[in-house]
C-alpha cells in the first residue's frame, strides 16, 4: 500500500482514464466515433476488419507524425566516414 496522495504525480491506469474523461468531475464528453471512422476508413483506407482489430498502441503508431529526418542509409554513412575519418 502506497502512502501519500496522488496530487502532483501523473496518474496512470483506469483511475487516470476516469479522471481525464471527466467522470470524476461529473462531466462526460461523448466519444467521437465519426472522427475515428473518418480517419480509419477514409483517410487511412483501412478495411473494416483491420479498423476494428487495431489496438491503442497500433492507432498511436498509425497517427504519429513522421520523424523529422530519416536516419542515414549505409552508403551515406560510409560516404561521410570516408570524407571525415577520425
Structure description:
With 86 residues, the protein is mostly helical. The protein has helices at residues 14-21, 33-43, 48-53, 56-63, 74-83. The radius of gyration is 22 Å and the shape is elongated. The mean pLDDT is 79.
Give the tally of β-strands. Answer: 0
Q: Mean pLDDT, nearest integer?
A: 79
Task: Categorize the overall geometry.
Answer: elongated
Give the strand content. under 5%
Which regions contain 5 or more consecutive residues with pLDDT less than 50? Answer: none
Gap from first CA to last CA: 55 Å
Report the sheet with the most strands, covering strand number, pairing sense and barrel closure: none
Output the helix-strand order: HHHHH
The chain-level structural class is mainly alpha
Structure summary:
The protein is mainly alpha-helical and 86 residues long. Helix content is 50%, strand content 0%.
Which keywords apply here?
single chain; 86 residues; mainly alpha
List the helices and strands and how they pair.
Elements: H1 14-21, H2 33-43, H3 48-53, H4 56-63, H5 74-83
